[in-house]
UniProtKB/TrEMBL annotation:
UniProt keyword terms in alphabetical order: 2Fe-2S, Iron, Iron-sulfur, Metal-binding, Oxidoreductase
Pfam families for this protein: Rieske (PF00355), Ring_hydroxyl_A (PF00848)
Molecular-function annotations in GO: 2 iron, 2 sulfur cluster binding; iron ion binding; oxidoreductase activity
Entry protein name: Putative dyoxygenase (Alpha subunit) oxidoreductase protein
Rieske domain mapped to chain residues: 50-156
Named cofactor requirement(s): Fe cation
Residue stretches in coiled coil: none
Signal peptide bounds: none
Length: 425
């Protein structure tokens, strides 16, 4: 029996905790709270899987740079002089200093602050003073990070051997995102929020709307219930009626979207896949246009060829992200581990690049729903982390009706950790 307060020091302990996970239930405490488990997550879940790292319009011009810390690791994403997007490990090839501080910058070259080794934007070492005649600069290129631009959303994998099934995500999402032309957008606003909880609690919280009615008064105006994987067996009469009404609403909207040539079906790649994602065109409640306080479009300049306010919400969940792409704006949210009990939640609101603040949209109106929702979710995640840290915590049961996506997430997590050396065999 695993004592919930026993210290963890070794990978074997993490493997034992993973093996102890009870199907249908939340994880053993130390998988949320322990330092060894957190480091293992950084190494495997954030080190050997594709993660959401931002948007192409974060770096619109050559020389634009974003440095992103991911647990103990850090990457640099930039646009080089040939207009190509690139990513590198944020580590100098000399003595390993962190090259670029976290955040945005504009540079001609990347210059290490320690001894001024200087790299071109394609990662080539251009200058290394005091290294002598026989020093071969070609051997000291910055270490590249695999980067994929999927319809304007950026995914990176820090491993030298990234999972090949990012191609599945790209094949599904590129046609779905094409009408919105996210390459033609700009970041109207960005918010960083540190949640006082483990990254898996952040993700679990996001994978259900069980908590929405009682915690998200703003979001609930536009967020229509969706079937994130109900188990149809054992529903009460009321639950059955709700489930039928939901299926009916999605059938009607589906017919409409189909006639418009808009893909809408749910596609789920979770258990059994390396790259975890789910997408579906979601109904927007109320007047049906956008996730705003009045459920109308926030921006009068539509995204790309979107043009029609009735396109719903093309949602995409990745293993560290949730995205809502609507006819007038997109909300791109990603979570990054900071410490076992700290997670950075970064939100970007994208509008058409020609939309002018104050004329075409009001920034407060654009950001109101997710600012409120993020603050509410941060509070819930902190409560969950406080609870799982207590001696009285026991793994609790997920609802088969509204929390199946959490069960899938937890199962996928255990499976991926085992596939990467954290098994008990
Ligand atoms: O943002 C999301 O996708 C999820 C879905 C339900 C709760 N949360 C808002
Ligand atoms: Fe970067 Fe020395 S560590 S130049
Ligand atoms: Fe929430």
């Amino acid at each position: 029996m695993l004592d919930s307060l026993a210290p963890l020091s070794a990978d074997a302990d993490v493997a034992a905790l993973l093996a102890a996970r009870r199907p249908g239930h939340t994880l053993p405490a130390e998988l949320y709270t322990g330092q060894a488990a957190w480091l293992a997550d950084c190494r495997i879940m954030f080190g050997r899987h594709w993660i959401s790292v931002g948007v192409a319009c974060d770096v619109p011009e050559p020389g634009d740079v974003i440095a992103l810390d991911i647990g103990p690791s850090s990457i640099v994403i930039l646009r080089d002089d040939n207009d190509e997007l690139r990513a590198f490990h944020n580590v100098c090839s000399h003595r390993g200093a962190k090259l670029v501080p976290a955040g945005r910058s504009v540079v001609g070259k990347l210059v290490c602050p320690y001894h001024q080794w200087t790299y071109d934007l394609d990662g080539t070492l251009a200058l290394a003073p005091h290294m002598g005649m026989d020093f071969d600069r070609a051997l000291h290129h910055l270490k590249p990070v695999a980067l994929r631009d999927v319809g304007g959303l950026l995914f990176a994998c820090l491993s030298d051997d990234p999972p090949a099934d990012i191609d599945d995500l790209a094949a599904v999402m590129e046609p779905r995102l094409a009408p919105y032309d996210l390459h033609d957008t700009r970041v109207a606003f960005e918010q960083d929020l540190i949640e006082d909880g483990n990254w898996k609690l952040t993700m679990e919280n996001n994978r259900e709307c069980y908590h929405c009615a009682s915690n998200h008064p703003q979001l609930s105006l536009s967020f229509h219930a969706a079937d994130f994987g109900y188990d149809p067996d054992g529903l009460t009469e009321t639950e059955r009626a709700e489930s039928d009404a939901l299926a009916d609403a999605y059938r009607r909207h589906g017919e409409h979207w189909q006639a418009e040539g808009l893909p809408y079906e749910a596609v789920e790649h979770t258990v059994g896949h390396a790259t975890n994602f789910r997408t579906q065109r979601l109904i927007i409640a109320g007047l049906g246009e956008s996730q705003t306080p009045d459920t109308r479009a926030a921006s009068s300049v539509p995204l790309g060829q979107a043009g029609r306010p009735w396109m719903g919400d093309m949602h995409l969940w990745g293993h560290n992200s949730w995205n809502h792409v609507m006819s007038d704006h997109a909300v791109v949210i990603a979570a990054y581990p900071v410490a076992p009990d700290k997670t950075l939640v970064r939100t970007k609101w994208l509008v058409h690049k020609d939309a002018v603040e104050g004329e075409d949209y009001d920034l407060d109106n654009l950001t109101a729903v997710w600012k409120a929702t993020n603050a509410e979710d941060a509070h819930l995640v902190s409560l969950a982390h406080r609870g799982v840290s207590q001696m009285g915590y026991r793994p609790g049961p997920y609802s088969r009706f509204t929390e199946r996506a959490l069960e899938d997430f937890a199962t996928w997590y255990v499976e991926r950790m085992a596939a990467n050396g954290y098994g008990t065999d």
